[in-house]
Every structure is written in structure tokens, then in C-alpha cells.
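Inputs:
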Amino acid sequence: MSATLGIAIERLSKSFGAVQALADIEIQVKAGEFLALIGPSGCGKTTLLKCVAGLLPADAGRIVIGSRPVSGPGGREASLVFQDFALLPWATARENAEFGLLLRGAPAAERTEAARRALAKVGLAGSFEQAYPAQLSGGMQQRVGLARALAVNPQVLLMDEPFASIDEQTRRILQDDLLRLWSEERKTVVLVTHSMEEAIYLSDRVVVLSPRPGRVHRVLDVPLPRPRETLDVRASGEFARLVDELWQILKKMQ
Amino acid sequence: MKRLLARGAPLAAFLALWQWAAWVPISFNFPTPWQTVVALAELLGSGALLQASATSLQSLVLGFGAAILIGVPLGLLMGVVRGVGRVARVYLDLLIALPTAALIPLVILSFGINVVSSAVIIFVFSAPFITMNAYGGVRDTRPRLVEMARAFGASWGKLFTRIVLPSALPMILAGLRLGLSRAFLGLIVAELLLSPFGLGKLIMNSRSMFEHDKMFATVAWTLVLAGIALAVLARLEARLLRWRAA
Ligand SMILES: Nc1ncnc2c1ncn2[C@@H]1O[C@H](COP(=O)(O)OP(=O)(O)OP(=O)(O)O)[C@@H](O)[C@H]1O
Ligand SMILES: [Mg+2]
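Outputs:
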């Protein structure tokens, strides 16, 4: 139905008062690419994602998704996934998954149908639909957050440390599920993480941002074979070598 | 059975204490629980109690209703428009800190002695709390939820109805409960001081005639009414906030 879209971030700068968060960011995300963003705390990763989502206006430069320049929030191309899930506590899993469609004025039947499908995609079909967030584990809550993002059928997924507050075992399962989803749906993904292993395991390329103001410090290619979720990539020497290379880059930057 | 015991035990202890107080007696003409029940039956039978209740409830509905209709929207407005909030909360803090009963002479002077003046006093007693809670509820809204909704392109109207209002609802409902208790307090204070009608008048009249059993019966009846009203609100709250029990 919709072609996959790339993202062009051109000479993007952003300040908060006297604090410059981002300086001259230049990133081309290819259509269908899985890009990881990593960098020290406070270097502007979240700010960058918010700019791409149109939640923050850029001071200078511009962002183009597909062929449409980002000019404000609510663009239909991209969906956000949050570290703290940002679920409505008073709404059931299904109502949460429907929320994006509700805000966009989709009719009820269509919403329910899309939410059901999205929940099934993330492995939350059946009785979980009626559960409130407080009744779900962190991992399941993030599945709902992902379903909400997918339900509006975006071409781009923007994920801000989506698995950071989830335990290690659940996180690995979610990572594999995300990889499977990504290969099925062919969406462009930009994922912010603090985990070097996560960046290498998931992405095609890792963009390393430097400390404040955030600039593109290095871009690391990750030529690991896919599908990684079935190939036991973590056990390979190449995986270890890439994680170490990323670590060396980050270490030298301090 | 256990639950029955747990619920019944405090009541039984209270009645025993009351009976003992009447036995001593701790004051002149102190009625026993049984005498109070008999007096209650008599008052209900004669229609005096129901008539007084109707009058009192009329001012309660008027005053508390106005407090909800004005207090909740005002609180919401204060939360959404920061400037309004900053200014209005100073006056509300004053109203809350003030000994509200001191306003009664002023109210009588402006409205005379009638159902409306009782309603005004009930309003003054309850509205500040209802307003403050609605205000606090709006300010409790998680910014992250607002951000999420904005990312999906939510308009201001949708942000308000879909994020701010449900976020504020628990505090609004708690404010209504608090406001209702305050409304009953205002009702009795108003009627004791303003008199010529309602439950307060019944209490005062019984007292001046040394019919202490009737006075007690009226007080007990008032407590029952307040209890029922609060229980209804609690039920409503449990229904609307089902997700919290989860
Ligand atoms: N709304 C804001 N107002 C003022 N300063 C801000 C605001 N948002 C972010 N900043 C500042 O901008 C810088 C970048 O913040 P940002 O949250 O983008 O960093 P980050 O890379 O996501 O950090 P972390 O890894 O801790 O999530 C920080 O110094 C932060 O204090
Ligand atoms: Mg961040």
C-alpha cells in the first residue's frame, strides 16, 4: 500500500536557550534501513528523534521524510515508541492500540480491526486486549506501545530507548520480535539506545553522536548477516568484534 | 461471617459506649440508643423529619450542584491557562484557610434568610475544594502523554478530552467527595445559625424544648443522609476508575 520512505536530516541544529543540543547534524537514513543512534547521555538523541517527529522545531536545517519536509507534529509518515511506553492507564490494551487512529478520526470498526491486527503482530492477541496497562508486565506494555505505533501503519518507526527499562531476558525476546516485524513490514527504523550490543545486534548502521552539542561523530556499518534472529549472530566472532569497535569509538570520545 | 463481624464490631462497640454514657449519665437527659431510635421513628412517622430533610436537601442540591458546575470548570480552566491558575489560586487558598463560618453574617446580609442563603453557604464551604482538586488534577497530567498524543496529531480539543480530562478525573472525583462532606458541614452550620428551616432547625428546636432524644435522632438521621450520599459518590468513583483497581 505504501512505499518505504527514507529520512534526510540536513544540517540540523537545535538549542534550548543557551544550551546547544544539536549542531549541524547530517544523516541520510535509507528507505527500509534499520539505523541505531548511540552517544553519551545528554548528547541530544531524544531531541533529534523529537525533531524528526515534528515535536520540536529545528533552529536551522531541515528534515525530509520521503519527499515531505517535516513542519510540525502529527505527520502520518512516522510513529514514536517511548522508553516509558506512554500508555494511557485508563484505557485497555486495545483502546491504547487504537489511540493513534482515534486521534486521526478513523471510524470505530476500522480502529478495532487495525488495533487487533497490530496487537496480534506484536504477540498480544486474545484476552490481553481487555487488560489495563497496570495488569501487564513491562515487556507486554511495550508490546502495546509498539502495536499503537504500528496500528497507524507508518512508514517510519522512531524508537527512543524502547527496551531500556525492560529486563534482559524479555529484552532479547522483544529485540528478536522487532527484527522479525521489521523484515516482514519493511519499515524504516531509527532506534536510540545506550546499549552497544543492542545497536550492533539490530541495526544496519550505527550513528555515534558526540557529547554536547551533539554532532555526528562516526558512522559504523554493521555487515552482519540477516535474519539475525534465527542465525545466532550474538555468538559470532564478528559480532564481538563490532561491539568492541563501537566501544573503542565511544571510549576515545570521552 | 468474618466480614460481618469486622463490620459489625465497631458499630456494636459504639452503641455499647453510647448506652454506657446514657447510663451514667454524662449529662442531663442524655438519651439511650433505644430512646433515640424511638424518637427517630416518631419523627419519621409525623413527617417532620422528612419535611425538614426535603428543605435541607433542596439547599444542598442547589449549593453543591452550583459548586460542581462552577468549581470543576474553573479548576480545569486554571490548570489549562496558567495565568488564570496563578491568580485564582491565591483567592482559593484564602477561602480555604478562612474560617468560612465567619462569612455567614455577610451572606445573610446579602441574601436574607432563605433557602438560597443556605445554598450560598454550602457553595462557599465546598466549591474551593472542588476547584482546587480539579486544578491539581490537570496539573498532574503526565507531559509524556501529551507529547504522545501530539505526535499523533491531536488537536487542542482532543488533547483536552482524551488526555487532560481523564488524567484529572481521579482528583476531580476525590474533590467531589471532599466537597460533599464540606457541603453537609456547611448545611448544618448554616441551618444552626440561620435557623428557620431544615434539619438544623429541627435540631435547635428539639434542643430548646429539652427533647434531647429527638435532637439525637435528627443528628443521627443527618449522618445517615451524609453517609448515603458519600457512598453513592464512592460507587460512582469505583465505576469510573475501574482501571485503578486493576
Ligand atoms: N525541553 C528542554 N529544555 C531545555 N533543555 C533541554 C530540553 N530537552 C533537552 N534539553 C537539553 O538538551 C540536551 C540534550 O537532551 P536529550 O534529552 O536530547 O539527550 P539524550 O541524548 O536523549 O540523553 P539521554 O541519553 O540521557 O536520554 C541536554 O543537555 C538536555 O538537558
Ligand atoms: Mg534521551
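Remarks. Residues 168-185 of chain A form the longest helix (18 residues). The longest strand of chain A covers residues 19-29.
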